[in-house]
Structure of Glutamate-1-semialdehyde 2,1-aminomutase:
Amino acid sequence: MSSQPLTDQPITDVPASAALLARASAVIPGGVNSPVRAFRAVGGTPRFMAAGSGPWLTDADGNRYVDLICSWGPMILGHAHPDVLAAVNEAAARGFSFGTPSENEVALAEEIVARVEPVDQVRLVNSGTEATMSAIRLARGFTGRDVIVKFAGCYHGHVDALLASAGSGVATFALPDSAGVPRSSAGETIVLPYNDLAAVEAAFAERGHEIAAVITEAAPGNMGVVPPAPGFTEGLRRVTAAHGALLISDEVMTGFRCSRSGFYGLEGPYAGGAPDLFTFGKVMGGGFPTAAFGGRADVMAMLAPEGPVYQAGTLSGNPVASAAGLATLRGCTDEVYTRLDVVAHTIADAASAELTAASVPHTVQWAGSMFSVFFRDRPVTDYDGARDQDTDAFRRFFHSMLAQGVHLPPSAFESWFVSASHDDAAVEHVLAALPAAARAAASRD
Ligand SMILES: *Cc1c(COP(=O)(O)O)cnc(C)c1O
């Protein structure tokens, strides 16, 4: 590779991040505000970031990294994109929050409805967790039933009823569940293996009249990327419709990332009809805390103040966050999606080639430009498969990449994310780091 290393020395010493972690740990449990950030799965000191620009992050010690987390998806245009920054500045100059309706939230809702054909209406919220929590309440209110079906390894935020066998941080820590979730709440959740339509049919045959909804990640990214098998989503639509249950497609991660209309844009429309409800987050906030749930008009009409299902938020539809989200979505042109595909495939192909050269068993899986590298030699179709991989090999690979200035997600159970700002220099820097990382993965220390 022709690329210049960013630093002559590998990044090993991070005293400023270590000092911040010590300070943080005194006042924040584990020193972090979201568990995966703590590096518990990979060990070492999490990097406290001071700045981001395009594809680059700069930590508190001044080290630079090519960012392959992209805030877990939102930074699809890169950090501090000038158009988004201008929109945020312009909105902020006119006030931060009114507690009344304002135009930006209308424009953001219009943009989402225009992009995702089955979505007639959306309600804006502040996080993906709120979106799924509200969507299941709405499904329960609409159907008058209580039971929710979810799939093992799918993560839908830290909602009580949806934490059973969740992926993401819960997978990282190999927790079967979370403490503090009432038995009564977990008892209303049926957890099934992903991609197993026969299990769904059996569950509906037994308890179909009690089931309010099936919630699924449109393409799971929180146990690593595990796309739906051909016909699986359509099968969910068929079974739920036959039993009067709703289908909720969680596109918090895939929405507006896998295509301009999310994973639905790649897989839909479905012969048996669209999901009834969708949830969105991440990209649609452009790095700010805004998210949404939406879908069929007759279902959405059940929401207060139109209907009896209560849902609210002091900062929901925040004008600054809405401006950031709208500028981000408007920036997501066809060229952007083309660039994401090129960057993702260039990096994934090179990673695979280097791992092969180093004799490291691995499988790369895709959903649009989201991909992950599983450290095992067979495809992964469900959560059991995702857990059956060499997480030690991942750990060694991760740390080699980090020392060379490439920041991967600090867990083997996550997607890698790229942005349209990943230019040739950033990609070359990643490619240059891969051979040594592959050798590290192969080594036993
Ligand atoms: C990230 C994520 C959530 C939760 O979103 P937060 O904004 O972190 O609460 C829900 N569902 C999916 C599929 C996600 O990837």
Observations:
- The first strand starts at residue 49 and ends at 53.
- The radius of gyration is 21 Å.
- The domain at 82-331 is CATH 3.40.640.10 (Aspartate Aminotransferase; domain 2).
